[in-house]
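User: Before I run my own analysis I want an independent prediction to cross-check against. Here's the chain; please return only the C-alpha cells and, at the end, one sentence I can use as a sanity check.
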Amino acid sequence: MKKKIYINAPITLGFALIGLIVLVLGLVTKGAITTRYFMTYRSSWSDPLTYLRLVTHVFGHASVSHYAGNMVYILLLGPILEEKYHKNLLYIILLTAVITGLINNLFFTGGLLGSSGICFAFILLASVTGKQKGIPLTLLLVAVFWIGNEIYTGLTANDQISQLTHIIGGLCGGMTGVFLKDN
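Assistant: C-alpha cells:
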C-alpha cells in the first residue's frame, strides 16, 4: 500500500520555505541580503524598508542552526494550530512580527532577526487550544515557567538572544488564543 505525502499545513510550510530561501540567500551573500531586508533595527521612519523589515525580520536567521532550532518548533506546533485557527494563524504571525519589530526599533539599538518570537507565540497559543471556555490552567503554568525562565536568562546571560522578543511573542500567542477561544 503506497502512502502519499500531502501538504497538511500550507501556512506553516510556506513560512518554513520562505525562511529557508532567505537563509540560503543570506549565506550566499554573506549576510548582506539578510541585514538589508530580513533584520529589523532602528532606522529612519521615512525609509520604506523600515516598515517592510517590521514583518520580514521573522524570516531572517543568523545561521543554519538558528533556522533549524526555530523551525523545529514551528513545524511541530504549526500544523496543529493551523488546523484549529486556519487563516487566523497567518494574522497571529503578522501581529507577532510587527509588535516584536516595533518594540525592538523603539526601545533598542541592536538588530533583531529570526522567528523565535513566532515560536513562543505558537507555544503559548498551543497551550490555550482546547474545547473549554476560559483560561486553561496549562496556559498559566506554561506562561509562569517559561516567562520566568526567560526573565532569569535575560538577567543572567550575555548570549545575543532577545529574551524580550520571546516574551512578547509568547504574550501575542497567548492573548490572541484566549481572544479567539472565547469568540
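Sanity check: The mean pLDDT is 88.
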